[in-house]
Amino acid sequence: MPKATGQKRQAAQADLDDQNPKGAKSGSKEKAEAPKGTKRITRSSDQSSPIASTTPEKQRNRMSSKNSKPAKGMAKDPSSPLNTPNKKAKIIKKGTARPVAKAKKAAAPKVTQKASKSPTKADDPTEVTDDRSSSLPGVAIPIRNDKALASDDAAEDDSDGPAYWLMKAEPESRMEKGKDVKFSIDDLMNATEPEAWDGVRNPAARNNMRAMMKGDMAFFYHSNCKKPGIVGTMEIVQEHSVDVTAFDKEHPYYDEKSTEDKPKWCVVHVEHRRKFPEMVSLKEIQQFAKPGGILENMQTLKMSRLSVSKVSKKEWDFIHSLLENEDEA
């Protein structure tokens, strides 16, 4: 038995000698040199992640790919404008919501309102009305706009007091449709009751009458005569009402367009207050109506055919001052 065991040991030793290269010892720490032309394969300590042998070209490619990774803060897309040295990509931490830019509100287009060619009712003091009942069907009584009635010297006018007017009548006889249309300040003085100022057929003059209020004062002006001018004063004692003479076909101032359902014209009632000792003639008034004159803007001089016109307080007072100067003389 011992002889057989020794033979087995010798056979096993011979096998080991055949497997190991010459000069190498079994169990030696030195590594056997690999034959030329062969590749050495090594394993890392981590047996689960072996690294395959690569050629030098592949290794260079691997290193270049590592170096080509985008730096921290740079975009992955090479064409991105954020890959410039002066622009850094915004890094959003996980778990945080990306801020959403607020949409800018579109600016509303400016709307310009075009000015109307014709004046509005508010611009015309004779067209501003209140809730008072009117004796003209379908015609509201106006509220007078003192600012609109005032002249350029509005600062000197007393807006809390009465308004002032000038009203023309013909003192000399003139026949129309067989009737005499004469009416003078003497006729007004002799009247036993308030006189209806009828026969006005001019829209501007009518509008002035609609603007009159009880307590307003007016100059009595003699017109269409040899010597025209202001001869006295009267007071408005009743505001406008329907001019019924416009319905009368026999009347000199009949108007077929004015009907009882839709009256077009109106009257105001007046009472005599004063007859001047001397007339303030048209020629005298015109002397103060030159450029820079105190009566330069007097409506009756600018619109000579208007039978009912406005007068400012300054003009009213000045004309009365002419009478005082005549009395002193």
What would your notes on this structure say?
- With 329 residues, the protein is α+β, with helices and mostly antiparallel strands.
- It is 22% helix and 16% strand.
- The chain has eight helices and eight strands; from the N terminus they run H-H-H-E-E-E-H-E-H-E-E-E-H-H-E-H.
- It has helices at residues 2-19, 56-67, 146-149, 185-189, 203-211, 282-287, 299-302, 313-328, and strands at 164-169, 175-176, 179-180, 195-196, 217-222, 229-242, 266-281, 308-311.
- The strands form two sheets. The protein has a six-stranded mixed beta sheet. A two-stranded antiparallel sheet has the order 2-3.
- Strand 2 (175-176) and strand 3 form a beta hairpin.
- The longest helix is centred in the N-terminal third of the chain and has 18 residues, at 2-19.
- The model is unreliable at 23-32, 41-52, 87-92, 109-143 and 146-156 (pLDDT under 50).
